[in-house]
Amino acid sequence: MAVSEFELIRRIAGIVGTARQGVTVGIGDDAAVLPPDLVWTCDLLVEDVHFRRRTTSYADLGWKALAVNVSDVAAMGADPLGALVGLVVGDGVTAEDVEELYRGLDACATAYGCPVVGGDVSRGPELSLAVTALGRTASPVLRSGARPGDVLAVTGPLGGSGAGWHHLDGRIALPEELAAHVDRRHRRPQPRLAEARVLAGRVHAMLDVSDGIASDALRLAEASRVTTVVDLDALPLDRGVAEAAAGLGVAPGVLAATGGEDYELLVALDPADVADAGVPLHVVGRVEEGPVAVRFTGAGSADALGGWDHLGA
Amino acid sequence: MAVSEFELIRRIAGIVGTARQGVTVGIGDDAAVLPPDLVWTCDLLVEDVHFRRRTTSYADLGWKALAVNVSDVAAMGADPLGALVGLVVGDGVTAEDVEELYRGLDACATAYGCPVVGGDVSRGPELSLAVTALGRTASPVLRSGARPGDVLAVTGPLGGSGAGWHHLDGRIALPEELAAHVDRRHRRPQPRLAEARVLAGRVHAMLDVSDGIASDALRLAEASRVTTVVDLDALPLDRGVAEAAAGLGVAPGVLAATGGEDYELLVALDPADVADAGVPLHVVGRVEEGPVAVRFTGAGSADALGGWDHLGA
C-alpha cells in the first residue's frame, strides 16, 4: 500500500462522506454517533500486525479485542451496551483455542458491562478479530472541542504497553518484575471507563491513547483545527519504561509518546478545571492557536516522532 | 478445525451466553436485539472462503459486504440505521482498489439507506471485510416463531447465486445471457428490505436465505423447536439454475436448496395469509410438530444435503 493509513481513511471519507442525513458524527472520531444517543465503534486485531500468536494467549487476545473497543466507547463519554465479534479462525487454531479466546472476551465483557451479543465466524489463513461495540450517551465528547488556552492531560502513565511489546518481541531484556508489569499492560489493557464517565461533563475534548500520544495529539489537532503541544518530559512514565527506553537507545519520553496501546484518556480542558476534574490528571501539554499540527518539546523532541500506521510494514 | 461452524457457535454461546441482562436476543438469530428497539448484525467476507479476487471486482465486493448485512437487518423486520466497515487490506491491494471497494459499499448504502458511518482499516495477508449493520424496529421478527400448521414460503427464485458461484469458478459453462444473470445474482445480491417491511407484521418467523434453504430451514427448526419440511420440487428456480444443475449433474432443486447466498426471505406463516401477504410468496414447505430437523421431499431429496460451513474446507 503506497499510502498511509490516515491518507487512505481520508480518501474513504471522501467516498462515503463524514456525515450523512441521520448521522450525527461519521468517520473521524473514536466512534460514530447516531441519534438519538448511540455511539458505535469497531477495531480490528490482525495476527502479525497487532499481535503474535507466539507471545499472546488466546484469553489475552479475547480480552484485548473487546477492551480496545470499550476504550473507544469510553472515550466518547458513553456507557457500553454490547459487542459483536467477527472471528476469522486462522490455520491451526483449535475449537479449544476459540473457547479460551471467548473466555477472555467474556471476562472483559463482565468487567466492563459490555456483553457479547452475537457475531460471525469463518475460517481464513490468519487469525483475526473484528470487534464492534455499541454505547449510549446523551452528550458525546468529541475530539473537535479542544480550544486554544486548554491544557492537555492524560489519566495515567504511558509507555508501558509499548515497552511490553518490545519486550515480548525479544528486542529488550528487563528485570522479571518489570517485565511482568509491562507485558501485562500490553496484553490486558484496562479501558478508563469509570474515569471517562467522570470526565465527560468537565472536558472539552477526549480520546483514548491508542496509537501513541504523538499520533493521537495530532488527531486532536486535526479535529479541533488547532496546534497541540506535547512536552515529552512531562509525560508520566509507566514502570519499566525508563529501563526499556535505555535498552532501545531512545529517550523515555519518546517511547512513552510513540509506544501506543496504553488506552489512557487524553483530554483537553480549561487549566482551572484540572484540580477538581474528579480523577487524577497529568498535564502533558497545551492547545494553541496555529496551524493544524502537533509540536513536541523536551528530551527527544528533535527526533522524528510518529504513531503506529497499521498499513505500514 | 475439527468441529463444524454451528458446533463452534454452540460452544461460544455456552461461554458468552445467549441472552444477558439488558439484551433481548443474543446469539442465534439473524441479528442481536437490544432494547428498546435496536437490531445489530455482522458478517465476515474472507478472501478464498467467501470470494475470490480473480472473479470479483472490488466494487462488487463492497456492494456484497454491505448487502448481506442489510439482508440480516431486513430479516428481523427492521430498518437499517448505518454500518461500520472493518477492512483488512490484503497483499497487493492498492489504494485505488480500496476506493473502488468503497464506491461499491456506498452504492449499496445509498440504495438501501444504510450509510457507512465509520470502521477500521489494517493491513493483513489476505483481503477480508467485517461489516456490521445496525437497524431499528419496535417488533423484531425472530426465527423462533414458526408453529406447526404454518407453511414455509420464500420471496423469490433460488439457486441463481449458487449457479453463479459454480460458473465463476469455472466448473460449468452456460449460455452468455444466463451466465451474466447468475454471475450478477452472485455478485450483487439484492436484500429484500421492502418485502421484509411488508411481511414483518404478517408472518410468524423470518430469516434470510444465506446458507441455502436446506441449512436455513434447519436453523428455523432449531429456533422454533419444530420439524420443517422442504419440497425440493416446489422451490422456485432462478433462470439458469436448471442448466447449471445439469452441468453439475445434480437435481435443480438440490442446487436451489444448497447453493446459498440468494438473500431471499424465508418465512413461516398461516396458510390462510399467503394470498394477502402483501408481496408475492412461493410456498416451498410446511412446519410440523416433531423432532428438531429439516426433512426434504421431491427430486434429489435422498441425497445428502447441507448448506455452507464456513469452517469446512
Largest interface: A-B, 71 and 71 residues
**Oligomeric description of these chains:** homodimer
Order of helices and strands of chain A: HEEHEHEEEHHHEHEHHEEE
Kindly report the spatial arrangement of strands forming the biggest sheet of chain A: 7-9-6-10-8-11
List segments of chain A where confidence is low: pLDDT < 50 over at least 5 consecutive residues: none
Shape of chain A from CA axes?
A: globular
**Main CATH class of the largest domain in chain A:** Alpha Beta
**Main β sheet profile of chain A:** 6 strands, mixed
CATH architecture of the largest domain in chain A: Alpha-Beta Complex
Beta content of chain A comes to 15-25%
- The CATH superfamily of the largest domain in chain A is PurM-like C-terminal domain
Summary of the model, kept short:
2 copies of one chain form a homodimer. The first copy, chain A, has 313 residues and is α+β, with helices and mostly antiparallel strands.
Describe the structure.
The structure is a homodimer of 313-residue chains. With 313 residues, the first copy, chain A, is an alpha+beta fold. Chain A has 2 domains: 5-136, 60s Ribosomal Protein L30, Chain: A; 143-297, PurM-like C-terminal domain (Phosphoribosyl-aminoimidazole Synthetase, Chain A, domain 2), CATH 3.90.650. The first copy, chain A, contains 9 helices and 11 strands. Chain A has helices at residues 5-16, 58-75, 95-112, 160-168, 176-187, 193-199, 213-224, 241-248, 252-258, and strands at 32-34, 38-46, 79-89, 116-123, 128-136, 151-154, 205-208, 227-231, 265-269, 282-288, 293-297. In chain A, the strands form 2 sheets. A 6-stranded mixed β-sheet of chain A has the order 7-9-6-10-8-11. A 5-stranded mixed β-sheet of chain A has the order 1-2-5-3-4, with helices on one face. In chain A, α2 (58-75) runs parallel beside α3 (95-112) and α8 (241-248) packs across α9. Chain A is globular. At the A-B interface, α1, β2, β3, α3 and β4 of A face α1, β2, β3, α3 and β4 of B.
